[in-house]
Amino acid sequence: MEIKTLTPKLSVSAQILPADLKAIKEAGFRAVICNRPDGEGADQPTFAEIERAARKQGLDAHYQPVETGKVGDADAEAFDKLIGDLPGPVLAYCRSGTRSATLWSLSEAKRRDLSDILTATRAAGYDMGGVVRRIANGGKTPTQTVDATYEIVIVGAGAAGIAAAASLKARKPGLEIAIIDPADVHYYQPGWTMVGGGIFEPKDTSRTMGSLIPKGVHWIKAAVAAFEPDNNAVILDGCRVVKYGRLIVCPGLKLDWHKVDGLVDTLGRNGVTSNYRYDLAPYTWELVRNMRQGRAIFTQPPMPIKCAGAPQKAMYLSCDAWKRRGVLSDIEVNFNNAGGVLFGVKDYVPALMKYVEKYDANLNFFHNLVAVDGPARKAWFDVAKPDQPVERVEMGFDIMHVCPPQTAPDFIRVSPLADAAGWIDVDQATLRHKTHDNVWSLGDVMNAPNAKTAAAARVQAPVVAENILADMRGRSPVAQYNGYGSCPLTVERGKIVLAEFGYGGTLLPSFPKALIDGTKPTRAAWFLKEKLLPPVYWQGMLKGREWLAKPEKIAAE
């Protein structure tokens, strides 16, 4: 339990347990507020249990449940009254603390400056960007003034957003489409593994955003602050309002570097690197090139993450480089995975295990990185093996490649479009939102149970385009997504295990087995990754040319 202070009278926290109430009492609190509805999570105690434990400690307890992403004006007003009525200091909690912090922010909007509220919540670890317009407007979100209106608005100009815009324009050139994204540069992120392996140059993985926005598509260079789906409105930073007929949400996910204590302070130095960042991938290769002995650790956080094979790709390419130089026998290699398996689709594991054995790498499952001391070259992992208490272990390192924890962006997690876990809530076949019929989502931010890869977005984009155009014609969805994702696992320089699979781990190979057997390492798959996939991305996917991405039709009843 981590308590985060917003004001002398109010602190917030993630879910508490009945056993925590004694410590809460000892910390000086006099009341608790539960902002999480009962039954939201299987491991969640009921409020009645919390209330009984609170009473035993002489604490007041109040139940004010609010659904995630649905903090209304009345909720904020009720919260404000509670804080005023209850003896302080007060501890409010929900699943993560975000709803409680949001309720406080909105309830204080008429009394405090916006900057004061954002400073307090940011210091506590909560980003209120998703409700900043409401805070600036005294706790309410006005959508009466409209700055622009488009037939289709796309939030996010990453691989998914640009591909969706290009697929729509290819089918109906006259569509009025706007893409909202504040970034100046677009990155080919699958190439960063190759940069970290000394194969690609960093500059080959980036282009200016303006050069990639499809012709005829409006680019709104701004960040999204909030969604108002009942009003068909997107609220931008600066309180501008963009209205839409149909909305596509695909801003990608958030790399939560701050979730690992000490990590941000040491990234890019002290031997700590990551291929998950453009500026750090070259440092990976520098470390690998210069290492001759010692311990190397490669980490993987709990799922979901983008490209679940990327953490071990970094390990394989590093080991291959060390083996070629004749120094691998002097390097202790550790793959510390928060999960319990090497790869989620069992058909590919035998081939990968042969390389784990070839490189004499230690597989440390259920090891989740929680803290780093870069100058001391030490890392701490919480080891959470099944049916055993969590144990914190310390490991020294000479180099460490980190895959950061990953979540949906904050403005998504607190939005009305998100599910209880913070991801956009879609039908996994049609990619249409489950409750808002004119909203679709694709890419890393939606909650379909598929691998979060660029290859997945390449197949999803035409599905979304087909279904939106069908909807505009008054028809039901006509295309469905089968969960396809691809992970080219670079097991050595020159060979790749080409994992291609869909929902439920079903194998979905794109090529005949005689050409590429995805369950085995092949040079043909390496040629695909090194030579063919970059132009497929830049000249195909982002241009509306749907190579290897023909939408699967929904069979007529």
Q: Key features?
A:
15 helices; 3 domains; Protein-Tyrosine Phosphatase, Chain A; 23% strand; alpha/beta; 557 residues; FAD/NAD(P)-binding domain
What do you see in this structure?
- The protein has 557 residues and is of the alpha/beta class.
- The protein folds into 3 domains: 4-127, Protein-Tyrosine Phosphatase, Chain A (Alpha-Beta Complex), CATH 3.90.190.10; 148-253 and 408-553, FAD/NAD(P)-binding domain (3-Layer(bba) Sandwich), CATH 3.50.50.60; 257-406, FAD/NAD(P)-binding domain (3-Layer(bba) Sandwich).
- 27% of the residues lie in helices and 23% in strands.
- The strands form 8 sheets. Strands 6, 7, 10, 11, 12, 13 and 24 form a 7-stranded mixed beta sheet that branches. It has a 5-stranded mixed beta sheet with strand order 1-2-5-3-4, with helices on both faces. Strands 15-22-16-17-18 form a 5-stranded parallel beta sheet, with helices on one face.
- Helix 7 (159-171) packs parallel to helix 14.
- The longest helix is centred in the C-terminal third of the chain and has 19 residues, at 454-472.
- The protein is globular.
- The model has no long low-confidence stretch (mean pLDDT 93).
Quick structural summary:
This protein is of the alpha/beta class and 557 residues long. The chain is built from 15 helices and 29 strands.
Profile the largest sheet. 7 strands, mixed
- Alpha plus pi helix count: 15
What is the mean predicted local confidence, pLDDT?
A: 93
Q: In terms of structural class, how would the helical and strand content be classed? A: alpha/beta
Strand residue percentage = 15-25%
The number of domains is 3
